[in-house]
Amino acid sequence: MAHSEHTATAPDGTSLHVDVWRPEGPPKFVVVVAHGGAEHAGRYAQVAGEWVEQGALVFGPDHRGLGRSGGPRGHVARFEDYALDLRQVMLEQAARGPASERPESIPWFLFGHSMGGLISLVYLIEHQHDVKLRGAIISSPLLGLTMKVNPLKLAVGKLAARLAPRLALPSGIPADAVSRDADVVKRYVADPLRVDVVTAGWFGAMNAAIARVEQEASRIELPSLWYVGTGDRICDHGATQRVFRSLPKAAARDQTLREFAGYYHELHNEPPDLRAPVVAMIREWIAAHL
């Protein structure tokens, strides 16, 4: 597997760091990764390697304000800006490679985890026909919080979202809620690229994006695999279940929700014996949609 990095430019000029993982031969399909909050695309090297073994070209940006991308740390004005960034990175990647790697030539899939799952859903509502996609994989999407937010902090956050949108607040993500794999948690805590703050404006944008997905998810026509862990202590798996149940034509559109009893937030980073069926599920779903 070959790994490379480059910088893309968002529509508003923000620099976006992009990681790319490439197979030895010509790719059979492409996976676009939208990572979660506080993290960066580089944390997906392991799952990218597993897709590369399947024959995939995998790439994904660090979202603005996170990782090695530009922008105020932990800030976005609207989740639609994340979606526009993702669209731009896709278009630039398609233009960078040969015609044989473009979405008109081989299947492209979108994979979004946590905050990246919410970004992916907003992207599909806004831009699902802009870049030809074969399907989407939505992992533990941020459609509600399991974590209890202090009422005072919640009130301050809502007020600051209007008066001081770039006020930085601790994200409050407990590291041991990410995975039950101690090594994963240790690396997560020590990661120098992790951003452990979000702004008040980001908090307001998150709530607006969740509300939009709740109202407009029925517009998503793309085949999709959604999955959650019922032991998730960060994102509310029940909120995902409710939104998915609201899809009016899920079966006809080849949209599926899978639940994994007791699994933590990052199902792809659980201990090896637990992550194996998750990896197998994704591989089989992609294989069935090539």
Which helices and strands, and how do they pair?
Layout: E1 2-9, E2 15-22, E3 29-34, H1 45-53, E4 56-61, H2 79-96, E5 108-113, H3 115-127, E6 135-139, H4 151-163, E7 168-170, H5 182-190, E8 197-199, H6 200-216, E9 224-229, H7 237-245, E10 255-260, H8 272-288
Helix pairs in contact: 2-3, 3-6, 4-6
Task: Please provide a written account of the structure.
By secondary structure, this protein is of the alpha/beta class. The chain has one domain (2-288): Rossmann fold. It has helices spanning 45-53, 79-96, 115-127, 151-163, 182-190, 200-216, 237-245, 272-288; strands spanning 2-9, 15-22, 29-34, 56-61, 108-113, 135-139, 168-170, 197-199, 224-229, 255-260. It has an eight-stranded mixed β-sheet with strand order 1-2-4-3-5-6-9-10, with helices on both faces. Helix 1 links the parallel strand 3 (29-34) and strand 4. Helix 2 packs across helix 3, helix 3 crosses helix 6 and helix 4 packs across helix 6.
